[in-house]
Structure formats: C-alpha cells, structure tokens
Amino acid sequence: MEGFPILSVIMLSPLAAVLLLLFIDDARVAVVRGIAIASTSISLGLSIYLLCIYDKAKGGFQFIEKIEWVRSLGISYHLGVDGISVAMVLLTSLVIFTGVFVSWVGIKHRIREHYMFLLLLVSGVYGVFMSLDLVFFFLFYELAVIPMYPLIGIWGSANREYATMKLTLYLSLGAMVALLGLLSLYFTAGAKTGVYTFDMLQIASLSYETGYQIKVFLPLLFGFGVLVPLAPFHSWSPTGHAAAPSAVSMLHAGVLMKLGAYGIIRAMWILPEGAQYWMPWVAGLSLINIFYGGMVAMSRRDMKFMIGYSSSSHMGYVLLGLATVNYIGVNGAVLLMFAHGVMTALAFSLIGFVYDQAHTRMIYDFSGLAKKVPFVAVAFAIMGFASSGLPGLANFVAELMVFIGAFKEYPIHAIVAVFGIIITATYMLRCLRDVFFREPMEKWDDLRDARTFVERLPFVILIAVLLVVGFYPTVIVDVINSGVVPLVDKLNAAKIG
Amino acid sequence: MDIWALLIVPLAAALIITFITRKRAELSSYVSVGAVVICFLIVLPYFVRMLGNPHFEHIEQSFLWLDIPGLMVEMGTIIDPLSLIMLFIVTFVGSLIHIYSRNYMHGEKGYARFFASLSLFIFSMLGIVLANNFIMIFVFWELVGLASYLLIGFYFEKPSAADAAKKAFLVNRIGDFGFILGIFVLYYATGTFNFIEMAHIIQAGNVSSGTLGLAALLIFCGAMGKSAQFPLHVWLPDAMEGPTPVSALIHAATMVAAGVYMLARTGFLYAAAPQEAMMVIAYIGGITAFMAALLALGQSDIKRIIAYSTLSSLGYMVMSVGVGGTGAGMFYLMTHAFFKALLFLGAGSVIHACHTNDIWEMGKLYPKMKVTAVTFILGALAMMGIFPFSGFWSKDEILTSVFSSGNYLLFGVGVLTAGITALFMTKVVAVTFFGEKRYHSHPHESPVGMTIPLVVLAIFAVIAGFAGLPGLDPNFGTFVSAVAGSAAAHAGEHGAHAEHHFNYFVAITSTIAVFIGIIIGWLIYSKKSIDNNAIAEKFSGFYKALQNRLYIDHFYDRVIVAGIYNNIARLFNFIEVYIIIHFVLNGIAYVTRQIGKALRLTISGQLQHYAFAMVGGVLVLMIIFVLL
Prior knowledge:
Radius of gyration of chain B: 30 Å
Strand order of the largest sheet of chain A: 1-2
Distance between the termini of chain B: 92 Å
Mean pLDDT of chain A: 91
Helix content of chain B: over 70%
Strand content of chain A: under 5%
Radius of gyration of chain A: 21 Å
Helix content of chain A: over 70%
Order of helices and strands of chain A: HHEEHHHHHHHHHHHHHHHHHH
Oligomer: heterodimer
Mean pLDDT of chain B: 86
Largest interface: A-B, 54 and 47 residues
Shape of chain A: globular
Distance between the termini of chain A: 42 Å
Order of helices and strands of chain B: HHEEHHHHHHHHHHHHHHHHHHHHHHHH
Number of helices of chain A: 20
Low-confidence stretches of chain A: none
Low-confidence stretches of chain B: 490-499
Largest sheet of chain B: 2 strands, antiparallel
C-alpha cells in the first residue's frame, strides 16, 4: 500500500459521489442511494484500515501528501494525520455512513440533492481533519459549514428559516474571526523566516513571543469556540439541531461541533504559551457549558432541544479536558469527542426515527413507547446511559479520564463537572421514563418499530462502537495518545519556559 | 482462568438470552439458572479450600485496560477469604433465587427479559466482589445499578415502577458522586487504584490523616447510596416495585450489602482514618437502623415491612463498620443474606397465593401454607436474633463491638432497634399466618420449585450463625480479618478483636429487649389485649408521620427535586430563552434590521437624491481637507 493516497481517497470519495450524482436522474432513487452508500463505505473501510495501520510507536503526522498549489503564496494541498485526526476521521466516517442510512428512511423528497449536500459537507469535514495547510484548512472548514444552510433550509422542520440563518451567521462570524488569527500567523511566521507559507507544520515549528501568542490565541479560541459551542456563544446549536433533519443533526452534533474543538487543539499546538495563558478561562467557561447547558436541557420538553443542550453541556467536558493540558485530561477530551460524536449521532437518529412517524418530539406527547417500539426503546436507553456515563460504554471512559485529569489541575472545576453527570442522568432517565415507560397510549398504536435491515443498521453500528470502546478503550486510546503526547509535551515546555 | 469465567459465564448468559433465546421463555430461564449454578460450582472448591486454610496466599489476576502516561488502569480480580465468602453468598443465594424465580415469574410476559437482567446482575455483582482495584469496583458498582434499574422497572408500564427505577438510579448516582471523588483523592494521594498496593502505602503512613478522613467519608458516600443509608435511604422501599425475587436477591441479600462489602474491602482505609470520620459513619448507621425500624412499624405492605427491616439491618452493619467491627458487619451480612432472602421469598410465596401485599388482607394462612409459614417463622426468629438462630450470633457480635468500643449511646440505639425489630416481625407473623382469616382468594401452598429454596435458606438461616461461634477457631472472624492487604492480616488486631469474645451482658440485654418486643407484639396483634387502633389514635400524629416515611420523601420530592426542576432549571431556561436568545441575539438582529431599513431609505432610486448626496459628500470632504 506504499504510496497509496489513502487520505485523499477517504476525503474525495464523497466528493466524487457528489459529482457523479450531478448526472443521475432524480427519479432513480436506488442508484442515488447506492452511490451514497458506496462512497461512504469506501471512506469508512479505509478509515478503519487507517486506524489499524497508523504507526502508534512512531507518532506524529503520517500518510503525508503534498502538492504545491500556489507557489507564490506558499499554499499547497497538504494532507497528513496524527493520532488525534485518525480518531476524528474514523468518527466522521461512522457518522456519515450511518447517516446515509438514516436519510434513506427519513428523507422523502429531493433525495438526490439531499445526498449531494450531505456528502459535500462531509468532504469538508474530512478535509479539516486532514489538512496541514492553513488555506485548505479554512476552505474545508467553510465547505463543512455552508451546506448546512440548504440542508436545514430545505429539509428541516419547524422554524427552519430562523434556525438556518442563525446557524450560518454564527458560524460565519466564528470562521471570520478565526481567519484573522490564521492570517496573522501566516504573516508573522513569514516575517520571521522570510518564507511565506501556509504550511501548518512549518508555522507550528516556530516559536513566537509570549505577548503575540496571547493576543492571537484569542481570535482562534473564539472563532473555533463558536463551533464547539463555547458558552455563551452556543445558542445557534440547539436551534440548529432542532430544525435539522436527522442525518444533518447527526453530522452537526456528531462531527461539526468536534471541528471547533479540533481547531482549538491545533491552535494550542501552534501557540502553546497563548494556550497556557487562556486555558484557565476555558476551564471556567467549560463549567458554564456543563452546568448551564445541563440545566437548560433539564427544563426542555422537546427531545431534540434536550439533546441539543445536552451536547453543548457535554462539549463542556471536552473543553475542560483540553484545559487541563495534561496527558490524562487531553486524552480524555479527544476520546470524548469521539464517544460523544457516536452517542449523539445515535440520539438524533433515534429521535428522528420516532419524529418522522409521530410528527412530534415533545416528551409529554408520549408514554409507554417501549411496548410499541421495543428496539428503539432499548437503543434509546443505551444512548441515555452512555450519555450519563455508564461504564461499559465509551463515554464513561472518556469522562473518567477528563475527571481524573481535571481533578489534578482544577479540583473545584472537577467536582462541578462530576456533578454534571448527575444532571445528565436526571434528564435522560426522566425522558426515558416519560417517553418509553409508563402506560402505553392508544394513539401510538400504529407506531412502527425499526424492523428492516436499513432501519436497524445505523443503530446497531453506533451502539456496537460505544460498547467496543467502552469495554476495551485501548483500541482507540493508543492511537489518540500517540497524538496527544507530543502536543502536551509542547504545551508543558511552554509553561516552564 | 476459571476466576474470569465467573464474569464471562453470566455475561454470556445475558447476551445469549438477549440475542438468541429471547423468544423462548423456558429455555432462557435454563440458560440463566445454568449460568449462576456454574458460577456456584466454580466458587465451591475455592471456598472449601479456604475453610481448610484461611491464611492462604491471595490470588490476583489482572490485565491492562487503559494505559496512557500518568494513568494506568487495570481490570483485575482478587481471591481472598473476604471475596470468597461474598462469592459464596452471591452464587449460593443467587442460585436458589434463580430457581425460585422460574416458578414465581411463570407466565409473565417479560420472562426472558427478567432472566437476562438477572444474569446481568450476577455478572455485575461478581465483578464488584472480585474487583482488586477502585476503578473496577466502580465500573461494576454502576453496572449493578443498571441491573437494579432494569429489574425495579421490570413492570415498566406501571408508573410507580417506572418512577421507582429512576429514583433508585438517581439516588445511587448522588452517592456515587462522592464515591468517585473519593477515588480521585486516593489516587492522587497514593498513585494507584489497586487495593493492596494502596493498603501498603497507607499503612506505611505516607498519607496525611486529613486526606484519609476525607477519602474515607467520600468513599463511604458510595456505600450510603448502594446500602441505602440515611439520608440516601429513600430509594430502597420504592425498589419493592420490582418482582419479589429481585427484592430478595438484589435489594436484600446481595447488592445492597455491596456497600458493606466495599467498606470491608477497603478496610485498610477505615482502619487508618481518623476517629471523627469513623464516628460519622457509625452514627449514620445507627440513625438508619433506628429510623428504619420505626418506619417498618408504620407499614402494612409485607414487602415494605421487610424492606424497612433490611434498611435497618444495613444500618446495623454500617454502624458496626463505623466502630471498627468490620468482621462483625460481614458476619451479619452473611447471616442476613440467608434470613432476609428467606423472608422475601416467603413473602413472595404469600403474595403469590393471596394476590395482595397487604398483611391485613391475609391472616390464618398457616393451615393453608405450612412450608412457607414454618420457614418464614424460622427466618423471622433468625432476624429477631433469638438464641441459637444465626441472627443471634451476628447481631450479638455487632452489639459487642459497639459496646466494647465505648459508644454506649449507639449501643442503646442498637438494643432498642433490636426490640422494635422483634415487635414488627411478631406483627408480620401474627397477622399474616395466624389470627382470623381475611383473605378473599383461595390460597394454597406454592409449588416445589418455590418451597425447596425456602427450605434450604431456612436451614442456613438457622445454622449459619455457628460459623461465627465465639471460641471456635478458625471462625468467621478469622476469615474476614485475613482479608488481603489489611492491617489485621499482618498485626492480627483491629476488626478482629471483638469477634472472639462473648459478652454475657450484651447478649442478655439484647435478648431481653427482643423478648419485650415479642411480648408487646403478641399482646397487640395476637392476643389483642392492647388495641392497636387505640394506640394509633393516641399517637396519631406520630403514626401518620411513620406512614408517610417521616416526610423525608416528601421533603425531597417537593423541596429539592421540585426546587431544581421548577425553579433552578426554569431560571436557567428563562435566561437562555428570554435574555440570551430573545433579548441579546434577536435584539442584535432587530437593530441590524432596523439600521438596514433606515439605510434603505437612502436608496430611493431618484437621481437627484444621489446627486444631492454626492455634492454633500464632496463638500464634507473638502471641509475636512481644508481644516486639516
């Protein structure tokens, strides 16, 4: 396999499908779905393969591909992955592959366009996780955000215009601010060496004055933080989730939010002293995410809003993990990005499955669904317990690591964060009780359970991943760790220096 | 390797039932029963070998579960006398209850689901018992919570069952909040999660006593949740919404005792913890024991009465641990597992026959159900602690260790509790099996599959106490004090001193209290020379408070839970919706829109307006230019 451009194939496979779909007739739904499944299968297969062949002992960026693009500006098509990005690429593949099946069940009109935008978006996501060139990093970032606008605007549910407008404005604002930071890095690095380049490896290898780092880290933190979403810039996210169709919510919460956290990780890597300076603030803000997000989730009756706020609450743990800047916490944060991505994709796919039939997501509209849709009920329960950090499921391991890491650096924060899982358990179990338990209602008698292969496959895959990582976290933690160690070492050196 | 089979077999059973035999109820029950019996057969040879040699070298087997710089977590098992005793109890009582359940649950719709959950429970429970480190014990600690949730909520269409399941899980979560923080404190103080390594570090005196006290109390929070200690006791009575065998196995014999087991397992911590911390534990145990016994008096649901008596027993055990009598606590745990499982299964047999839980709708069942009645009465005698039944010896050890630790107030509470226990157990027996007939159905003795477990448990409820006979060597105390890594294993003191003495004063005092209780009970409920309604009248306020669980649940529901849901969560939601979204964000959007509208006026489409504006602009620029 030497010389095989595995990263390009993973990333371009959905893009190729988009191009192919341009020439397919709308009516030929089976072909459209076939193409979507084929392209995402290739990406998923190769992502799993990537996890297996990534050299953990060696670490660093591997599978590098570099083609010069605009020499005068120092822009090149430059891909490469470290342990952190390998995990994120795998997450993306899992979510889009299952998402394609969820859309098969849920999307009934303009199927071809829906898949085109979905696949376009996911190419952008892959691109962000793989790019080692800041220009491409930014372009892919935009490519991941822009298709959201039509995806929610066209296939969304209630309040979609408002939601999609808000989401796009927020994310564009974030992107713009982040761009300022990135450009500043380009010019400062160029002025230092005399060679102007957007090569991230080159830019990260230089050291910058402390004052400059502190100044420039802020726009990056804010810009990417909006996408995380860092409180108090989070309100686009639950609204967006609620209006989006299932597969889009899955990608949005499962993957897009992780782009923000990934951006912050890269910013930490480039500007370690800046990161050290701002991390206590991030730790503080993360508590707002955790506690405030959890409390708002508790008071919500719309399941999608509940999970939406829950997501922003759980991303708080990711931020807290990053803020610890120690091996345990950062490893936990990255693992949680993965675990939460899978869990939340499961949540939105399940809620979507019920919503598509019932046309309501209000908790109080339901009762006793476990009798009618036992498969969905069991899957939902597993999701709820995963979210509440039950051992045996991936989220527990990740949260445990974040807590242990945080307890060392910020014991008070850690206590609040641990308390947060009680909050999560409260609203998850209450939702489980009200929706799936208690007396069955007559009006839901003809609700259909997930029976066919296509309906069950996404749920089964996502649950299996949660269980495998939950029971034996080493499968993925080893790889993540190989990416985290050099990052944390660099940050610690900056602290002492 | 056969140790790991103890975990693999029940887990495999749960998975097989879930994925393969789900539709075939009968087969599913065989899979589940088979799994737990296999576990028992695996444990048995180890157990027998231990009886011959209590000081054998403990066996630890681990594998690496998580390995990153600064954090190495293992999953590992430990076999020592303590874990073997507990393994024996869990698999032995578990086997009997599984067999009993086959008949008891017959014809239920979720038969297969029930057995899958039971197997999941056995898997998790054995994980707790076998764990050799804190992370592993916490993992399985949470998993038994899951199994308990699933089984309490077995009749999930019933709102009360759905509520009870949720309550149990969440209340336990609150305890586990402290538990996990305690684990973190210990990890950063000692650098390991492993019990034995941690014990050595603490015994070497490398951890400050303040840290130990804090850790001891935080870890104890976990036990407070699982073993339902005041103020986290509220979930256990509600947990009786689950099927009766579940109440017997999980909410009496094994899982709720896991808290006490964990305290014994981490005895090295409690042996080193400062006295103040231990007093907190002892008093919480004492309060729980006394309060629960009182509450049991106010109930008329047979399962709830036994549930409160379980609470009371758990309080006894915790009190014992608090005064340093860990061995006594474990001894009580064992005898309690037998007689309490027996009482619950007996209650189940009665409920099965009468189709009601209310003891006032039973009466005179003795002639109809002789096996159930006799075994139940034996269980009740053991529970009251009548010589020479098992409960006598274990209760006596606890009271002796409390007495010899000098906590006379707690000793008084313990004796009083014993008296009240005798009173309400007399009431249950008298009202259920004797007196006049008040049932409406046609009760008959339960099938053999249910009565055999009753008989076996009854035998153990009677004789198990001799395991701890004072003067016997080796006796129960020897085994417990040989727990791996404990200070006692080296020094032969702390936790072992009380067991070997028999204190006549203690035995006689408690026996007198018990007989007073029985006599009062007999006078009220059997001979009726004292009218129980009259007493209820006279102390109507107190009686009502007892029936309402001293309003503790009301307080939690109406003040704490409602306060959080209706006030705090809503406040946050208000901030989110009205202040952040409507006011700030939509406000910004509104202002932007208005500015846009205003500016739109300038785009009038009339050339003269533009020309005018242009001239004006040029003028302004000129003025600026000239002035500068």
